[in-house]
Model the fold of this input.
Amino acid sequence: MRTLHGRLYLLVILGGAVGVVGCKKGAPPPSETGAADTAAAAPAPAAPEAFAVSEVTLGKAIGTDKRVASPSTTFGPKDTIYASVATTGSAPSKTLTAKWTFQDGQTVKEGSETIAPTGPAVTEFHMAKPSGWPVGKYKVEISADGTPATTKEFEVKK
Amino acid sequence: MPDAKQPKADFSDVEGGSSSTAPAPSGRSYTVVKGDSLSKIAKHLYGDAQKWRKIYEANRDQIKNPDLIYPGQTFTIPDA
Done:
């Protein structure tokens, strides 16, 4: 009986398998289906997204992804100050500039980074002052190819 | 308003830098030689001396004064 049952099970399983194969046989091969689906579903190639500064975040440290780990707008005199600039879009060459100024209008530091982004990217600018930052209000202006994009204000407190 | 009597804050020892997740442009680079000026380099590379500002903007980290560049400096030359 066990053998008979075993054979019956085997027949049922084999029958099912043949059925599945039979069903598949009527359908095109997976590769063809995939190719046909892709060709049919793929929209016309989109124009490259225009380059833009999407966000500027300030903080005391950045990660390997150049993003500020803990955003802050208040710093201590001995802190290194980071500005993490997130951008979208692509460009063969864009120069991002960070101009840091003090409350009296003095330029504290100016730095630039020329990039050729092919999509979302993060560029960081940082500055430190070993002798300590004067207490007061500061701002950093981010521009792209000389065109101001955004300004962030922050403060140094004792 | 800051106190007018206060001495001007000194930022001469400020250090800074930058970096990006985006690649640098694959454009040309140019090493300054004696007698060069930004407009001369722009004329040589772009055929237009008026485009010196493009080189200046792309190398602001190295060029403090566009009238003062030094032999040995290597500049990124953005596409015209």
User: Anything to note?
Assistant: Chain B has a mean pLDDT of 85. Residues 41 and 52 of chain B are 7 Å apart (CA to CA).
